User: Which sequence fits this backbone?
């Protein structure tokens, strides 16, 4: 079983690094006016979230879930993308990279994410009166916030 987990981790790391490359290209595309890049950014976020959840990396899963909520709002037209939000999204990709390096080196995802989660929640406040999720797909698989100490 331990060798299986090592193999899963190895596959995860390979896949997530490929996802990070796609993230970077998608943000370049977005900056060049390709609004379809949001769909690709959402797909990659969802993929990383699922893989992280499968392997028990709760911080990474939670950060991606929170990012996914805002991306759903953008896709649905409920949130307008602006420079500040792009900065938060790019900072999140940097933090995801930090988390992946932490997983690779220490086999845990104990990296501070609270600042980015809070920043996304500020955009998530645009929810309707019933406080329904901006992203029905994401709400079905809601991820509780992990208790992580700052590193």
Assistant:
């Amino acid at each position: 079983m331990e060798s299986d987990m090592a193999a899963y981790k190895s596959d995860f790391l390979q896949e997530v690094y490929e996802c990070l490359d796609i993230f970077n290209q998608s943000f370049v595309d977005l900056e060049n006016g390709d609004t379809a890049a949001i769909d690709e950014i959402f797909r990659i976020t969802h993929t990383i979230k699922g893989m992280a959840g499968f392997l028990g990396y709760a911080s990474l899963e939670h950060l991606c879930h929170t990012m996914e909520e805002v991306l759903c709002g953008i896709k649905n037209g409920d949130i307008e993308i602006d420079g500040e939000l792009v900065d938060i999204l790019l900072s999140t990709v940097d933090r995801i990279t930090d988390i992946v390096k932490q997983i690779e080196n220490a086999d845990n995802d104990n990296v501070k994410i609270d600042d980015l989660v809070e920043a996304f929640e500020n955009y998530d406040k645009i929810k309707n009166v019933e406080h329904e999720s901006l992203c029905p797909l994401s709400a079905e698989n809601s991820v509780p916030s992990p208790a992580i100490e700052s590193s």
DSSP finds six helices and no strands in the chain.
